[in-house]
Amino acid sequence: GLTVLFGSSSLLWSAADTGKLLAVTFTPAPTSAAGTVPVSLNAASRSLKHNSTLDFNFMLTTPPAVASPLDGSSVGGSLITITAYGWGDVGARVSNSSDVLVNVSSLRAQVVSVVNGSGNGGAVVVVARTPSGAGLSGSVQGSMWPSQALDSSGSLVSSFSWTYYDPPTVVSISPANATVGGFTGSSDGNSIVLAVSNMPSLGSLNQLQVSFRVNGSSSSLKAPLVSFRSSLDTTYLTVSVPAIGGLANRTAQIDVKVSIAGFETRVATGGPFLFYVPTPVVQSIRYCSSCYPGQRCVVNGRCQGTEVPLVSRIPFNQPGYLVLSVKNAYNLTLGEAGPKLGKPRLQLGDNSLVDLWRVSSLSDSYGGFSTASLEFAVNVSNSSQCTSVVLLNSLQASVFISGLVCFDTTVSVQCRSVTTGNVSSCAGPAVAQDAQGYFFIARVVGPFVRNGGEVPGVAFGSKVSPMVSVVASGANFFDLKVRTPSNLGQSAISADVAMVVSSADGTSSVGTTWTFWRAPAIVSAVFDTYGTRVVVTFDQATNQGASVDMKCTGLLS
């Protein structure tokens, strides 16, 4: 029989006897202290009735200590928990921070606290603060040992591995501002891109957290992460900006937190980021002579589905509806109507007030700010009322309605041929047929007021005529030679716009609909059945040479 004593513990073993050599395998018994352990192998021969004993010493060394987390900032100051084993009775006497010393690299770390001595399965656990110093980066070795008072031999040392990282840095924020509602102007409306350097390798969005610390606020606002991508040494984070509310400009700092299991949480801070109160802006002005009570005035570009709305123009003494598209209107509700305290009203130039008829649509809403379609029932009787402002509410400044023109319905405009002087359709090419451009005569009939030798302006929608001159005048009319805007990039076969003739001071105007024609495009060109002709198919009729005062080549080129 064979027995193995490891100190005072009897061990399980296995043996292989080759006849000349006995190989004995055993696993050392666990112990709380490093050092020399006596081992005794006792063998008894049953045939020879003889006992043999082999005594030797076995050395147990301290295993590597474990540091958690595995890394920390190169600027120092990281808190790490170090767990060391094998200190035995020395570990049991560890009770305060002065009993243990810790080095990280070759620099002394501050032992903040002792979690416990060897009462936890023989482990000594301490919390230390990493040192700071020049040139700290990458993987280093650390060590932990008891004080001279506990171990005068100085032989009890536990080593551990540690890594210094360079802290991440927010390099740029694009854009660096948003409305208090969170609108940034990005393609999705409310996102920004953060460029962050020195980021660790990321596996998922769950490892990231972005928040906004608004100055003057005690809490942070979490920002949803949309995506991330890495390029060279920079990581780009796409983040949705939260709404902060209120009607005051505020600044904020942006915190990017990276949490990976086993490693120190890394934080990068960028800013300042500006939250601003957006200014309301009138985007468009349209007039309809009638509207459906149960739906928006303007649907698919038409009033009641048929009438083309007037753009920035209102006729005198004709009841109708002014439809304003206002960007950044605050605190409105879809469908609300009628006179309500603090709700939009229209103030005309003579200081008369028009109550809101209806909020017919809200879009691009961010934190209470929206692009709103506001409808007002109006009946303008004189030119002084054309200077108008929108009183949105008590929280926002009023908005001046620029470009609004009132006109007398007794004034009319005709389109005539430059060459013959005859009445023609109000239409022309979207692309100039030659370097001179396309000209026509606009005859204004009625009490249109021109001051002295003033040359009225002519606009085609948002495009202004590059050349206008007065070529004739009479008792109740005058003729303008007008060059149309060209090279409009029009894709549709035809496009209708409002053509408006207006005086410089805006007191007189008259308008009609002008049609821009696009040149026909070839759909196909194939030989006929006999192969003697090429049949060309266009995307529109091509026999319209007489429809406007121009050559057919102008339409076909």
Nutshell version of this structure?
The protein is an all-beta fold and about 550 residues long. Helix content is about 0%, strand content about 50%.
What does this protein structure show overall?
This protein is mainly beta. The mean pLDDT is 86. A hairpin with a 6-residue loop joins strand 44 and strand 45. The strands form 12 sheets. An 8-stranded mixed β-sheet has the order 7-9-12-11-10-13-14-8. A 5-stranded mixed β-sheet has the order 16-23-22-18-19, with no helix packed on it.
Tell me, briefly, the overall form: elongated
* Beta-strand content estimate: over 45%
Q: How would you write the strand order of the largest sheet? A: 7-9-12-11-10-13-14-8
The number of helical elements comes to 2
Helix coverage percent: under 10%
Q: Count the strands?
A: 47
- Radius of gyration, in Å, reads 43 Å
Low-confidence stretches: none
Structural class: mainly beta
Distance between the termini: 112 Å
Major sheet: 8 strands, mixed
Q: What number is the mean pLDDT?
A: 86
Structural descriptors:
about 550 residues, mainly beta, 8-stranded mixed sheet, 5-stranded mixed sheet, 2 helices, 47 strands, about 0% helix
Compile the SSE list and pairings.
Layout: E1 2-6, E2 9-11, E3 13-17, E4 22-26, E5 35-45, E6 50-60, E7 66-68, E8 71-73, E9 79-85, H1 88-92, E10 100-104, E11 107-120, E12 123-129, E13 138-146, E14 158-165, E15 169-174, E16 177-179, E17 191-197, E18 208-214, E19 220-223, E20 225-231, E21 234-240, E22 250-258, E23 266-276, E24 281-288, E25 298-299, E26 302-303, E27 310-311, E28 313-315, E29 320-330, E30 345-347, E31 353-355, E32 358-366, E33 369-378, E34 388-391, E35 399-401, E36 405-407, E37 412-416, E38 427-429, E39 439-445, E40 457-460, E41 463-464, E42 467-473, E43 477-483, E44 494-502, E45 509-517, E46 522-527, E47 534-538, H2 552-556
Parallel strand pairs: 8-14, 16-23, 28-36, 38-45
Antiparallel strand pairs: 1-2, 1-5, 3-4, 5-6, 7-9, 9-12, 10-11, 10-13, 11-12, 13-14, 15-17, 17-21, 18-19, 18-22, 20-21, 22-23, 24-27, 24-29, 25-26, 29-33, 30-31, 30-34, 32-33, 34-35, 37-39, 39-43, 40-41, 40-44, 42-43, 44-45, 46-47
